[in-house]
């Protein structure tokens, strides 16, 4: 993953995102007791802060130093419950069995041989923990010269890779976005996977 590309994107504007937590996170996670959470591709930190304000201890990871600095500077009222970390989780997996929640929202998770990066993220979910994956629905994605939508995971792809003896899929669906699409895009639907690791 190209850290320079993402740094340049974040530096191009004072704020990229709304500053509000992703609605899928709010909808799907409100009923969970707080524990250890991994926020994959945390960006400007709204999800991490929202989780921390609800008692979660959050490891918020992004490849962009600019995004992390912006997130840490803006974060208030969380009493050290977020650890901001720069890393590329597509090449360096997080610790295994370490998290009660692994939250992956709109993270460009490209397919790799053997699904290496994906398995690293799945393995980070501890027994009884939750995987929450949300992305733009495939129907809303348009391939172009520098982007092939088929190279990136959709929730249904991940669901089919989960061992049914080790995971319970609670949600695997496409739903209308709860917030307006980002400017200049036509994203109208979210594709969502929520699964609990059994063992």
UniProtKB/TrEMBL annotation:
Methyltransferase domain sequence ranges: 38-129
Molecular function per GO: methyltransferase activity
Protein name: Class I SAM-dependent methyltransferase
Keyword Methyltransferase found: yes
UniProt entry keywords in alphabetical sequence: Methyltransferase, Transferase
CDD domains, sorted: AdoMet_MTases
InterPro entries linked: Methyltransf_25, SAM-dependent_MTases_sf
Record-linked PANTHER family: PUTATIVE (AFU_ORTHOLOGUE AFUA_2G14390)-RELATED, TRANS-ACONITATE 2-METHYLTRANSFERASE-RELATED
Highest taxon in the source lineage: Bacteria
GO biological process: antibiotic biosynthetic process; methylation
Keyword flag Transferase: yes
SUPFAM superfamilies xrefs: S-adenosyl-L-methionine-dependent methyltransferases
The organism of origin for this protein: Streptomyces boncukensis
């Amino acid at each position: 993953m190209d850290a320079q590309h993402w740094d340049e994107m974040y530096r191009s504007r004072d704020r990229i995102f709304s500053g509000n937590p992703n609605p899928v996170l709010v909808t799907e996670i409100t009923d969970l007791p707080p524990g250890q959470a991994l926020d994959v591709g945390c960006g400007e930190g709204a999800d991490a802060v929202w989780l921390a304000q609800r008692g979660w201890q959050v490891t918020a990871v992004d490849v962009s130093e600019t995004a992390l600095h912006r997130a840490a500077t803006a974060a208030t009222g969380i009493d050290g419950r977020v650890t901001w970390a720069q890393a590329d989780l597509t090449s360096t997996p997080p610790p295994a069995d370490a998290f009660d929640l692994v939250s992956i929202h709109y993270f460009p998770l490209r397919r790799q041989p053997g699904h290496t990066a994906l398995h690293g993220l799945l393995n980070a979910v501890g027994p009884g923990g939750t995987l929450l994956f949300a992305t733009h629905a495939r129907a809303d994605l348009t391939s172009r010269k520098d982007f092939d939508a088929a190279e990136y995971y959709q929730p249904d792809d991940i669901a089919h890779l989960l061992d049914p003896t080790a995971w319970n899929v609670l949600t695997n669906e496409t739903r209308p976005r709860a917030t307006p699409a980002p400017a200049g895009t036509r994203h109208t639907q979210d594709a969502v996977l929520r699964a609990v690791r059994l063992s």
